[in-house]
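Weekly sync, protein design subgroup
Attendees: M.S., D.O., the rotation student, P.L. (late)

Item 1: inverse folding check
M.S. brought a backbone from last month's batch and wanted to see whether the design step gives back something sensible before we order anything. D.O. pointed out we never logged the input encoding, so this time it goes straight into the notes. Structure tokens as presented (342 positions):
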């Protein structure tokens, strides 16, 4: 490989239930991206079991990294920096990636760059949209996070709003379980909702009185559970598709409304989405429509770059590396790491 051509980063992600490694050039070009998903393993428990996730990461991480290097047709000699997610996430899961990255960095004397998982999700947008540069607002919706942020510059974020309780993806997963769809719920609700009537049941759109950009999804989740209980008590059956579609619309309405409010208040003509829930087809079409109406350019990653992957960590690591960020061999996993903190 021609090393003159820029910065090549080996990125590692193990914050939840995906063991992933990628080789990314200059922050925007994926040379390889390998994801080993543990979904099948956790399915029978209805959610991610942290202890099992950590053990599986240990089993998989070396082969996932080797495969990423092989697919990219590079060796560790070609790598300029190792980027790794060090938070937020499950501590035991994060530690596997962090320990691995530190070992490679130490053994091969390659600089180490700790990356914030959410910064990774947002940076997924840079991979397929070469023209996208900060500042822009981004709606980050995943299984663990719901944030509306302005990416002011690379590595610089202003948080406008966040969830007060459940994350959007968590609400999808819980409602999916309640209507018998199983884990992981988001993609299943997405699929089933296409057959349903989104106006069949009116579920609440929660707003937080003193914080217009904050979100709250626990009331919506309770409203769905109450509706299901009501049906059962009356001996009535419910339509899985109608509940899925009506719930999904209630979530998406609030997400789109908040995102548009931010774009208008702060005068942006571009907007991005990120995180696992950004793969949701209804959210994507509603955002597209709302942005088009206002002349806003809408950016979103391919579904495979929305859910957890290491390519997004490689993109974020590149800009951190260019900003001079270097992590020491004392880098630790920080399960509740805040965005913008180091
Ligand atoms: O970003 P991610 O892979 O992991 C976290 O950082 O949390 O997000 C996973 C979440 C899960 O809650 C999953 O149900 C949700 O993203 N998700 C979806 C879709 N695909 C994944 N939610 C709604 N619609 C989808 N198509
Ligand atoms: Zn994630």
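Designed sequence read out in the meeting:
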């Amino acid at each position: 490989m021609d090393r003159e051509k820029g910065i090549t980063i080996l990125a590692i992600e193990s914050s939840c239930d995906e063991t992933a490694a990628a080789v990314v050039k200059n922050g925007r070009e994926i040379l390889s991206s390998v994801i080993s998903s543990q979904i099948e393993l956790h399915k029978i428990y209805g959610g991610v079991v942290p202890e099992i996730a950590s053990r599986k990461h240990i089993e998989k991480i070396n082969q996932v990294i080797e495969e990423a290097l092989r697919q990219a047709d590079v060796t560790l000699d070609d790598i300029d920096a190792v980027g790794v997610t060090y938070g937020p996430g499950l501590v035991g899961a994060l530690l596997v990636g962090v320990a691995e990255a530190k070992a490679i960095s130490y053994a091969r004397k390659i600089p180490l760059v700790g990356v914030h998982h959410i910064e990774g999700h947002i940076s997924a947008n840079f991979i397929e949209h070469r023209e996208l540069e900060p500042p822009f607002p981004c709606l980050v919706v995943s299984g663990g996070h719901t944030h509306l942020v302005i990416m002011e510059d690379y590595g610089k974020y202003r948080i406008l709003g966040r969830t007060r309780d459940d994350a959007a993806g968590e609400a999808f997963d819980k409602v999916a379980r309640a209507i018998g769809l199983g884990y992981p719920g988001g993609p299943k609700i997405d699929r089933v909702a296409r057959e349903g009537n989104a106006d069949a049941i009116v579920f609440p759109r929660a707003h937080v009185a003193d914080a217009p950009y904050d979100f709250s999804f626990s009331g919506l989740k309770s409203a769905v559970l109450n509706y299901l209980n009501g049906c059962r008590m009356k001996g009535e059956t419910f339509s899985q598709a109608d509940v899925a579609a009506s719930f999904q619309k209630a979530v998406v309405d609030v997400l789109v409304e908040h995102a548009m409010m931010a774009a208008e208040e702060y005068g942006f003509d571009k907007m991005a989405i990120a995180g696992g829930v950004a793969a949701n087809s209804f959210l994507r079409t509603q955002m597209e429509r709302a942005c088009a109406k206002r002349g806003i350019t809408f950016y979103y990653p391919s579904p495979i770059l929305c859910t957890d992957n290491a390519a997004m960590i490689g993109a974020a690591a590149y800009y951190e590396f260019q900003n001079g960020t270097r992590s020491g061999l004392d880098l630790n996993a920080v399960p509740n790491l805040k965005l913008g903190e180091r």
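Discussion: The longest strand covers residues 29-37. The pocket of KG4 (ligand 1) is lined by residues 16, 142-144, 169, 172-173, 184-187, 190, 275-277, 279-280, 307-308 (CB under 6 Å).
Action: P.L. to compare against the previous round before Friday.
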